[in-house]
What we know:
Blueprint: E1 13-15, E2 22-24, E3 46-57, E4 62-74, E5 79-84, H1 90-97, E6 105-110, E7 113-114, E8 124-127, H2 139-149, H3 154-167, H4 183-195, E9 201-205, H5 213-228, E10 232-237, H6 240-246, E11 249-254, E12 257-263, H7 265-269, E13 271-277, H8 281-284, H9 293-296, E14 297-298, E15 305-309, H10 312-324, E16 329-336, H11 339-353
Parallel strand pairs: 5-10, 5-11, 8-9, 9-10
Antiparallel strand pairs: 1-2, 3-4, 3-6, 6-7, 11-12, 13-15, 13-16, 14-15
Amino acid sequence: MSFQTVATNKPEIQSSPATGNAVAASATVTSGSISALPEGVTGDALTVVDLCKSFRSGFLKRRIRGIEGVSFTVPRGSVFALLGHNGAGKTTTINCILDLVHADRGEVRIMGQEHKRCESRACVGYLPERPYFFEHLTGQELLEFYAALLSLPKDIRVARITDVLQRTGMTEYAGRRLSKFSKGMLQRIGLAQTLLGDPDVLILDEPMSGLDPMGRREVRELLLELKNQGKTIILSSHIVPDVELLADSVGILCNGHLVETRNLREFNDSCSYLVQVACGGGQLDGLHLPPWVQAKMQPGSAQQQCVETDNVDQLRELLAACHAADIPVQSVDTRRTGLEDFFMAVHADSDNGANNNSKVVS
């Protein structure tokens, strides 16, 4: 069994004094939920400060950078997305957060607690990018196995399993062996396993991987429902539309660096404007227009010219100058910069400034 797919929200691991082997300690259960937070814990759901990880690779064991200086915070009850191309460092970041991979340096706090402490993961549900399960088990047996690992009380175990199967659309397949599951079905049963402990924090690595369009929509609706219940969700993805529909904020990873973090509401509130005037580019040179206009001119013709403004203030300034110079304004078009355009622009800027000799592993 892959260690990554053993639910990280229980149990606490301790060393047996007699044998020195790792054994599972009993979990404290409060009101039928295994994810009760420690008393007095306040602050953000997740805080990551200057997280760095490198790897040794090849015959010479040269050091290869994985992630460098990654820092961000996730408020409780919000959805945060790590967006990046394949190999950008999304999975490495998540593995370091959960201490599945030991970071070279940096600080991570989950619900206010140091991430190396087992109890910090008592309220976390984790879905890896490629979940691996015992293929001889049925979906029902798998969830019963994890319910036992989570120390779920027997009086709520059946109801909880039934609930997560229904929420992930896997009820009719619960009796089928995992060896007969498609990739999308394995992803769904993995998500059911993640929800089994009713965690307060969900960390999902590429949760839409392998899902068909209908499955992706159902999972999005489920995640939005969990958000409305106050759950905190941290997910990674390279699919921009999914991030736009789910996330409150996004961090863009490129070549192991978190190059931008943005609140997605900024993309709804920010606009640019394309102003078309009845005047050729050469005719504008002698007029008293704002100094930034020349840099904002778009390709035009001898009869008309287009100027892009970055905000409402620039638009007002340009329109006033055109009115004073008696230049007819033919049209004003509103343009919104979406996350995909922003992502591509940031990625291009990062690539231009990147060291071509560096290599990133995911």
